[in-house]
Design goal:
Chain B: GO terms for molecular function: thiamine binding; thiamine pyrophosphate binding. Chain B: This is Extracellular solute-binding protein. Chain B: InterPro entries: SBP. The complex is a heterotrimer of chains A (264), B (354) and C (316). Chain A is an all-alpha fold and 264 residues long. Chain A contains eleven helices and no strands. Chain A has one domain (58-263): MetI-like fold, CATH 1.10.3720. Chain B is an alpha/beta fold and 354 residues long. Chain B has two domains: 3-134 and 263-326, D-Maltodextrin-Binding Protein, domain 2; 136-260 and 329-352, Periplasmic binding protein-like II (D-Maltodextrin-Binding Protein, domain 2). Chain B has 15 helices and ten strands. Chain B has helices at 3-15, 18-29, 41-59, 70-79, 96-101, 172-185, 189-192, 200-205, 217-225, 241-245, 275-286, 288-298, 311-314, 321-326, 334-352; strands at 33-38, 62-67, 88-92, 105-106, 130-142, 163-166, 210-214, 231-236, 250-253, 260-269. The N and C termini of chain B lie far apart (68 Å). Chain C is mainly alpha-helical. A two-stranded antiparallel ribbon of chain C has the order 1-2. In chain C, helix 5 (89-122) runs antiparallel to helix 12 and helix 12 packs antiparallel against helix 15 (279-312). The two termini of chain C are 34 Å apart. In chain C, 53% of the residues are buried. Classes of the chains: A mainly alpha (264), B alpha/beta (354), C mainly alpha (316). At the A-C interface, helix 1, helix 3, helix 4, helix 5 and helix 6 of A face helix 1, helix 2, helix 3, helix 5 and helix 6 of C.
């Protein structure tokens, strides 16, 4: 295949890519500055700030909290979403259009509005179970991703294999386990990963529901930006960037899922 | 615990004075939990990292702290009024009358708060709250520039785009409005505070000099220290001096028109969970030892009398009480201001947010 | 990564999302055990009814069923919240700014996205992969961190000022805390949502069409204007609807980079609810934001359908 791109366009592309990564590179540079204040260009070299962030009990606590929250949200989204996706694909339910509309609409309503609406509802119910509130809020926005991804993989299941297995005398459970599961597993994994990421990175829902004890990473980062004077905030931003790169590697290599599915 | 060991405990406890208190603390507070609303900045950090852990260790309880500013903390109390979530709230003196009128807080059981004995009467608020940290409010500026002698100078062209102004969310924003009214009318703060409604043209005249409105005192102090802006206006000294003491190129200035008292207080939430523990925590906040280290860290003055400070700390705070009087710190008429505050906020937004 | 989460793409992508589900009816004739199907979807439907539909609808209801007068909530059917919204200069201006920032973000993102999308669709596999990864990987970085990154670049003593100083330019005003800063960061954060739909639209264009034009002597630019641009309009519309909705609902980015000088509707909601405790008015602003986003999605989609049918002459 020959390259159809003009040199001018190529230069444009590289400049744009540089601009895209610049706001991610600059904090990483600043994070090693051996000065008590954030400066650009960085002066000297130290890993002191990384040590400070990694040993900070609050930062650790909030990271573990977000992992726990995202884990629970992923689990619940899959428990609800996988059967739902399968049901939608396998059965012709009356009012399917309406059902789909309901499932996909959390993607249209602005998150900040979903968050405030949930806060109002929880206040009305007199609920004080903050963790459960956060799980519910995140699950609402994770479900559409899970269902979309998983239903895609159910559609691709080869029905004749199932029929063949049934004819050969396999029980429905065996068919599900031995024939269907291997085919839909990648879709379910992808759905789970996306749910995890969406929950781990959520700000606009958490900002309404979180409290002092249930304080996810994005809110913690925001409060650090406001109160931290030294380059430790840059170090924390850098750590988040490395964490994201690790996720990219995991998604692309370990799971073999194309990143492009994130927004397709 | 067996009868024998309980007797031995009783005997032991009689042998020292402190022991009975500690034992009784552990007994009733064990496993209880309260949520409190505090402020941010280094002051909040000290509460979270020093005062609370020690209190939790002494009482075997859990204290969950959530950072916020006065109006947001009042909002949290209003939102959870039917089913209070917080037990103790840190707010500025400005909001005490409102909270009292709306039935959000209750009168303190002073008998259960031995440490309140030394509370200065001016910080007792008729028993509806106590001061916890007293700041002075004024300007903060980068040490590389010379501070203006009067607030009126800030309206000059020399400061174009170089000022950071506190956002209307925060208490010191009211101080700014009083300053603007004083600059316009030439009257002292005590009279100018009633002229704010007619002084918004003066506020608007400052707009070209304002770089941005800041929500967050520490962040603004940081940016001024970095030289991104020359002056920040109207902030409590507690957000500035701790960084100045650490060597950041920033300090406070108090122009000729006068300075304001910034009174951080604590209140007891009406019907909040574990009231007894909440009262014990409020008492802890007033204990001499806590107040001394707290004040030295945040560089604020204690609301209780009889605490001795070293020279480096005294340099930053208005203490003892005679110092507070001689500096003539102005405390606005909050009852008058509170009824107008939301209208002023909207007018400020109308000037700056468009 | 607010962006990733918020893909209000459902409408825009409805055809795509529905396609596999529509295909299944052909694959599987109506099954007798329909109740099993209901059992499988019911928990999700119930969950979303209770924790999504009901909260959002009751929020909308609140905006017309109560108002706050001098700090006290007065129940009763009322249009006052909306009248206040549309009669106060301040709120109209913030509404206008929200629409302006969202529209400009769309426009700038579209301009920048074309070269990148063409590189993905038409470049050598290696280049296409590098561009795709570089565009998408930032989506995994938290939006707070990305906004912070721009803060370190745009502030008065930041990387941009330093770079300008190296080439002898000093004394330029700081971009931080201006609408420009908000715009720049929004474009950066939401660019992937423009690039990917465009790239897939361009990929669908037959190379033979381009080659024919080139053989006939058209310059690269003319090929772009006459072939790629018109044929990629569906992708542009999908991308625009995504970027517009995301930017209109942005909260974190204007918060970190706007310095209270450039609040958008999202900031206004937060202020009304958390600071001023005016829930009914906050609910009215929320409703307005939903309408703005829904409206833009519908407009862009109409554009797609009409143009798409026209340009392709119905041959999909």
């Amino acid at each position: 295949m020959n390259d159809d791109i003009s040199p001018v366009l190529k230069i444009c592309v590289w400049v744009l890519l540089a601009l895209v990564v610049a706001p991610l590179v600059v904090p990483v540079l600043m994070s090693v500055s051996d000065t008590p204040f954030i400066t650009f260009p960085p002066q000297g070299f130290t890993t002191e700030w990384y040590g400070k962030v990694l040993t900070d009990a609050e930062a650790q606590g909030t990271f573990l909290f977000s992992l726990k929250l995202a884990g629970v949200v992923t689990l619940i989204s899959l428990i609800l979403g996988v059967p739902c996706a399968a049901g939608l694909v396998r059965y012709d339910l009356p009012g399917q259009g309406l059902i789909l509309g309901l499932i996909l609409s959390p993607l249209i309503v602005p998150l900040i509005v979903i968050g405030v609406a949930l806060l109002q509802t929880f206040a009305m119910l007199g609920s004080r179970a903050t963790f459960a509130q956060l799980v519910i809020g995140h699950t609402v926005v994770c479900l559409p991703y899970v269902i979309r991804t998983v239903s895609g993989s159910f559609v691709l299941v080869n029905r004749s294999l199932e029929d063949a297995a049934s004819v050969m005398g396999a029980s429905p459970l065996t068919v599900a386990r031995r024939v269907v599961w291997p085919q839909v597993r990648p879709g379910i994994c992808a759905g789970g990963i996306f749910a995890f990421i969406v929950s781990f990175d959520d700000y606009p829902i958490s900002m309404w529901l979180a409290d002092g004890r249930n304080f996810p990473v994005p809110l913690f980062l925001h409060s650090m930006i406001e109160r931290s004077f030294d380059p430790s905030i840059a170090a924390m931003a850098a750590l988040m960037i490395f964490f994201a790169l690790l996720l990219v590697l995991m998604i692309e290599k370990a799971f073999g899922i194309s990143l492009a599915r994130l927004i397709s | 615990m067996t009868l024998l060991s309980r007797r031995r405990f009783a005997a032991l406890s009689l042998s020292t004075l402190a022991a009975p208190m500690i034992l009784s603390k552990g007994a009733w507070a064990q496993g209880k939990e309260i949520q409190i609303g505090i402020w941010g900045g280094s002051q909040g950090e000290f509460v979270r990292k020093n005062i609370i852990p020690q209190f939790e260790a002494d009482f075997g309880c859990t204290v969950i702290a959530e950072e916020g500013f006065t109006l947001a903390n009042v909002g949290k109390m209003q939102a959870t009024k039917a089913n209070p979530k917080f037990s103790v709230m840190f707010i500025d003196d400005v909001a005490i009358p409102t909270c009292r009128a709306e039935g959000l807080i209750e009168e303190l059981p002073v008998v259960d708060m031995p440490a309140a004995a030394h509370l200065m009467p001016r910080f007792a608020y008729d028993g509806w709250g106590t001061g916890v940290a007293i700041s002075v409010a004024g300007l903060f500026h980068n040490t590389s520039i010379e501070a203006p002698k009067t607030y009126a100078e800030l309206w000059g062209d020399a400061y174009r785009g170089k000022l950071k102004l506190v956002s209307p969310k925060n208490t010191p924003s009211v101080f700014f409005l009083i300053v603007a009214a004083a600059v316009k009318s030439g009257k002292p703060f005590a009279e100018a505070q009633y002229l704010i409604d007619d002084s918004f043209d003066q506020v608007e005249a400052l707009k070209p000099n304002i770089m941005n409105l800041f929500d967050n005192g520490p962040q603004a102090a940081n940016e001024v220290a970095q030289g991104q802006a020359d002056i920040g206006l109207m902030e409590l000294s507690k957000y500035v001096y701790p960084y100045a003491a650490k060597g950041a190129p920033i300090t406070m200035a108090f122009p000729a028109e006068g300075s304001f008292g910034g009174n951080n207080c604590q209140v007891l939430v009406k019907g909040g969970p574990n009231r007894d523990l909440a009262v014990a925590f409020m008492n802890r906040m007033l204990e001499a030892q806590v107040q001394k280290s707290f004040s030295e860290f945040a560089l604020t003055a204690p609301p209780v009398s009889g605490i001795a400070f070293e020279e480096p700390t005294l340099k930053y705070i208005a203490y003892p009480e005679t110092q507070m009087d001689s500096r003539g710190l102005f405390n606005p008429d909050w009852n008058f201001i509170n009824t107008r505050r939301s209208a002023w906020t909207e007018r400020m937004n109308g000037i700056f947010a468009v | 990564m607010t962006g990733l989460i918020a893909t209000p793409s459902a409408i825009a992508e409805a055809p795509g999302a529905l396609a596999p589900l529509a295909a299944k009816s052909a694959a599987s004739p109506l099954q007798s055990g329909q109740h099993v199907g209901w059992l499988m979807v019911a928990p999700t439907i119930l969950f979303l009814m209770v924790w999504f539909a009901w909260p959002v609808l009751s929020m909308v209801w609140l905006s017309v069923s109560a108002k706050v007068v001098e700090g006290v909530t007065v129940p009763g059917l009322t249009a006052d919240n909306y009248l206040r919204l549309f009669q106060t200069d301040l709120y109209l201006r913030i509404l206008a700014r929200t629409a302006r920032v969202a529209a400009l973000t769309c426009l700038v993102a579209a301009l920048l996205a074309y070269p990148l999308a063409i590189a993905i669709a038409r470049g050598k596999p290696g280049l296409a992969r590098i561009v795709t990864l570089t565009i998408l990987a930032p989506l995994l970085v938290n939006v707070v961190v990305r906004s912070y990154g721009w803060q370190t670049i745009l502030n008065k003593t930041g990387a941009l000022a330093w770079a300008l100083k190296q080439v002898g330019i000093t004394g330029t005003p700081s971009l931080l805390y201006t609408e420009w800063a908000v715009l720049i960061a929004c474009v950066h954060v939401y660019l992937p949502f423009m690039v990917m739909p465009l790239a897939s639209a361009i990929r669908r264009i037959e190379r033979s069409v381009e080659e024919a034009a080139r053989v006939a002597g058209a310059s690269r630019f003319r090929v772009f204007v006459r072939v790629i641009l018109p044929l990629s309009l569906p992708g542009l519309a999908v991308g625009s609807s995504l970027v517009f909705s995301l930017a209109a609902a942005a909260y974190v980015t204007p918060q970190i980079l706007g310095g209270n000088f450039s609040p958008l509707l999202g900031t206004l909601i937060e202020q009304q609810i958390l600071t001023l405790n005016d829930w009914p008015f906050g609910a009215a602003i929320s409703t307005l934001l939903i309408i703005l986003v829904l409206g833009s999605n519908i407009v862009f989609l109409r554009l797609v359908n009409r143009r798409f049918a026209k340009w392709t002459g119905g041959s999909k």
